[in-house]
Structure formats: C-alpha cells, structure tokens
Amino acid sequence: MKIIDHIKNANGKTLFSFELLPPAKGQGIQSIFKTMDELMEFKPPFIDVTYHREDYMYKQHESGLLERVAYRKRPGTVAICAAIMNKYKVDAVPHLICGGFTKEETENALIDLNFLGIDNVLVLRGDARKGDPDFVPTPGGHGYATELLQQVIDMNSGKYLHEDIESTAKTDFCIGVAGYPEKHFESPNFNTDFKWLKKKVEMGAEFIVTQMFFNVEKYKEFVTKCRDNGIHVPIIPGLKPMTTKRQLIMLPKIFHLDIPEELSEAVEACKTNAEVRQVGEEWLVEQCKELIKFGAPVLHFYTMSNPGPTKKIVERLA
Ligand code: FAD
C-alpha cells in the first residue's frame, strides 16, 4: 500500500515507522530479521531501507603502495525490502539514489521493484563517496534528486528510456523525497534549498521525510513554511535518540544539524553511557509527545540498525 494511503487510513493517529541499514557485506540478513522482530509490536505500516553507493577503500601492498579500490559496503537494499515484505507483510520503502547508477540501471532497478510489488520509493541524490570532496554523479546517471524523480514520474506514466520499446506497463510508485528543516548543507541559504523542495513536490513527490533534528521547533517552523508556500503533502519527521557523548560532535558533522544547548549540556554532564542513553531517551520522548500534539503523521526513527534505544522510546509513546 502507498504511504499516503497508510496515513489517510490512520485518520489523524500518529503512526510509527523505522529506517534500517543493510548489513555490512559479509554479514547475514539475520540482523535485519532480529531488528524487525523487535519492532513489529509497534505495527509499523512501513520500513525504510537505505541505499549505499560504493566507497573508496585503501589496500596497502607489501611494497607500501596504497591501492584505491571501490566497493559497496552495504549492498542488498532491494532484496532486503522483498524479504521484509514477504516475511512480515509490511510495506518496505527502498531508498533510491542517483550516485552509482546510470539512467538505464535505475530503470532496471525500478522494473525489479515494480515486479516485486513495492509501491513506494524514497528518491534521493545520495551522499558523496568517502574520499570525494563533493557529490560526483555517475557518468550517464543523475546529478540531483529532481532528475531521478523525473525518471520515476516518467515510468509512472509509461515512459521508458528507449522510446522504440512497446510499453504497456505503467508503474505506480508513491514517491517520497528528503526535506531539511535546518537546510541542506550545500545550499547557500534556506530559501534556495526550500525552492528545490517545492519543485520536487510540484513535480509529483507525494511525501517528505525530514533529516533528523533535535529541536522540535525546527520541524514546526519547517512545516509552517511548507504549508504557507503551498506544500501540502505529509511531512514525516526523522528522529534519532542520542546514545553516546561522541554524537555531540559526530551528528552535527555528518548531518549538519544543531543540537540544543540544553541537550548538549545534559549529555556533557553524564558520567556513563547509560546516563547518556537515559538523557537521550527523555529528550526524544518529550520531542515525540510535542510532535504528536502538533499532528505529525508518522514518527520515523533512524534506528541505525540498533533498535534498542528506539524501542524504549516508542514503548513509552504507543
Ligand atoms: P537534492 O534534492 O538533489 O539536493 C542536493 C542539493 O542540491 C541541495 O543543496 C539542494 O538545495 C540542491 N538542489 C536540489 N535540486 C537541484 C537542482 N535541480 N539544481 C541545483 N541544485 C539543486 N543518502 C544515501 O546515500 N543513502 C540513503 O539511503 C539516504 N537516505 C536518506 C534519507 C533521508 C530521509 C534523508 C533526509 C537523507 C538521506 N540520505 C541518504 C542523504 C542524502 O542523500 C543527502 O543529504 C544528499 O546530500 C542530498 O540528497 P537530496 O535527495 O536531498 O538531494
């Protein structure tokens, strides 16, 4: 079922959903099933599975020479989505990225997803490869989420890349895109970034999932700005509990967000990791209560494949 239909059917009740990472290459799918087993009690209407482009690794030879090799550390997104749908009868939402795909490879991936009965995709540009200073598009691929979005929209209207093929099958993907309450880090200012978000919705994106944030006021301001500017699709807040002191440095560095002073001071004052987890839990529970009151359609948790802290929070809200 489409995400927008899950939201409509909930009649204003806030739903819970989760994002999972494919296991690192060499690890089995059991970790996904273990995570799913822990989260199923919250009846998630859908589960997102991230997509990871290849990264550069450096292999040292005996001579001391370093060889640069590129490989994908976390393959398996499409298969994990199929396995989740088959085993748990829950909708799975694969993330679809520009990086690492030619347009034809994207088309073939969309055909696979359609044949597997996957109804939703989250369309993204994707992160830059580790070692690249900026995002580098794959030759023959897309440079922005808007371009990838256009390809999915084209397939939804039966338009494939090769015009000479006989096309009788239209796909019917419900398409989500990313939104940034604290602005995308590459954008010169908030309004420029917002203009591209608006463009994605005008093109046909049907829901927005936000980057994580720790200050619920940022989400509220973002939603208000969207509504004031004619963006009326569901805006799903992305959430993550803080679990370690190191995240005070890492989360702003990786996700380009602000951690409220009250939270950072409380975490700094903790003497043990258990204390940090408790502070992180209390903070997010309060944020979630505010989001529910505000009418957030879904609370979407970035589990980072560690469901424990998320589970504790959702147990207190469900
Ligand atoms: P875009 O919408 O293409 O925007 C990128 C930048 O370009 C922005 O600054 C924007 O303002 C600007 N821009 C947008 N369109 C245009 C245009 N047409 N012309 C000029 N400028 C433009 N990364 C992964 O690799 N895998 C994942 O699974 C993944 N999942 C994510 C899930 C969520 C909910 C979020 C919020 C992010 C996720 N990311 C993932 C990270 C994401 O790929 C990065 O944040 C990336 O840098 C931007 O992606 P985007 O889709 O927002 O890009």
UniProtKB/TrEMBL annotation:
Domain of life, per lineage: Bacteria
One Pfam family in the UniProt entry: MTHFR
Example of a GO MF term: FAD binding
Co-factor requirement: FAD
InterPro entries attached to this UniProt entry: FAD-linked_oxidoreductase-like (IPR029041), Mehydrof_redctse-like (IPR003171), MTHF_reductase_bac (IPR004620)
Alphabetized Gene3D superfamilies for the sequence: 3.20.20.220
EC number annotated for this UniProt entry: 1.5.1.54
Similarity section: Belongs to the methylenetetrahydrofolate reductase family.
Record's protein name: Methylenetetrahydrofolate reductase
Native source organism of the sequence: Sphingobacterium gobiense
